[in-house]
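Hey,

The postdoc asked me to send both predictions to you directly instead of through the lab channel. I've kept everything plain text so nothing gets mangled by the mail client. Protein one:
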Amino acid sequence: MEKALKYRLVIWVVVIFFIILTSVTFPLQSQIQKTCLAVGFGIDKVDGQIEISAQIIIPQAGGDYSQTQEIISNRGANIAEAVSNLELETGKNLSLDHCHVLVISKSLCEENIIEHLDYLIRSNLMNNNTVLIYTNGTSKEILLSSSQLNTSDLNNLQNITNYNNSHDSSSGISLIDFVNEYMSPTSTSLFTSIEVNSTDESSSNSNNQQNNNGATTSQPSKEATTLKNDGSGVVFLEGKKVLDIKKEEMWKLNWFDPRFKVGSIQIENISDEKLKNANMNFYIKKKDMQIKPKFVNNTPIIELNLQLLLKATNITQQDKYIVPTGTNYISDTVKQAISTKIQNEVNDAVQLCKDNSLDIIKAYNIFNTVLNKEWKQYLSSLNSPYEYLNHLVVNVNLDATFYK
């Protein structure tokens, strides 16, 4: 009797488990059938209309989980109309909750882009932490290229932007951060710039099929293109793109970015007791920073305190390679050369801001937050409040630790 009761209990547990599993699975299947799940989104301006492109996930049947990506797009007088047209064409709702990347093209940046981005936030279509990317081409090309090599996880925009945020390559900005910076006194933002390296310029166009109302669906090309992520960027002022930033300039600006943690630095023509006219490369394993503003004789000064964990990776002297052994070649001369190198790069970054009247390093925010009263008094002493960059001084205080 007792064994029969246990057997019945086990049967009921199994039945209840399958009932619960079935009730959960059916809505999920229904959701996939009703929703286009986008992981990438792009905005272009074509023939006076707004064209949106979505990189959507297509689950594949099989024992192992797999998926493909397709690019769907449509046009309208604005984003709202383009989204509506896209949903009407596909018969599915567009979901941008899991969208990691928003690509903004050059064609759109001839005007203030805040109108389009503000709509995405206020409509709750897109996650506020979505990363913004700029391209001189079209956003559709970027998304298509990213989809082509998805099976090998190359050209993955999410991987690229995550890498850029912590390395010396470039700088990323989220959707909500851009809106907040647009509303700030400086109205200045820094974007990552990514382009397409095409092996066949016509390959992307040959795989697009467009219908009469502007909707397109793009399949991956056999001639795979690659993305060009070379560390360059662009600056936006009041919602408009105003300046291109080269990789070397981006590197120098990154000394002010707390997200930049690792990278490399090279010093040249080092001569001390062990070296003569040598070049040395160091790997930056970790960077910590503190920014402290102050005024000295009505001059705004930023003390940039850097703590670096460094390792010598390459030493060449008169075209001869020297094997770095521990910290044997780290002298006071080497330390001073590193400090001077960073100070010069920081000075170049500040000069870039002054030459273009762009507060890319957010000096205004630094002083206004920490020394609000003194900052307002300083601004009132200027002929124009926008002259504050002209008198800015940044001092680098380096604390370098070397490891084997």
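Protein two:
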Amino acid sequence: MATEEQKKQNIMRMMTLMISGMAKALYDMLGETAFATMAEVGKTTLEIMEQEMGLEVDGENPKDVITEIGRIFADEMGFVESFTTEQDGNKINLKVHHCQGWNLTQSILKTGVEIPFTCPIMNVCQAALIRMGKPAQKSIESMPDTRGSSITFTLIDA
């Protein structure tokens, strides 16, 4: 019989298989437009951060909001160990280090999904920018050396 720790590991393995399979199916069916399917996850998580963790979006500076989202993912959720935020003109870059979602993302990428569209941090930041009326193009790159990602938002002049 499995120990409690083995049972927890088996549950995580099953959840990883389920999420990876769903991500692969979405990506195969929709291609890069699969990004749009994660908008609801971003919006819902953004609402939780506002209601339960004090995040303020309306009337704020986009870089400051992205920085605060990174802080919440690090300090309040423990989802990432650390992060940095930089802005150069209309580009805001968020680098996350030691992400708890790293193994899941790698599992999804191994299925043939080319872009980690399921990244919750990227999707929450995108939802915040949309709410602020600051649409942006987004891109994400894996950073294996820190088990993290570099997420860039290019603000679009509306």
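Summary for protein two, as requested: Strands lie at 80-88, 91-99, 136-143, 148-155.

Thanks,
C.
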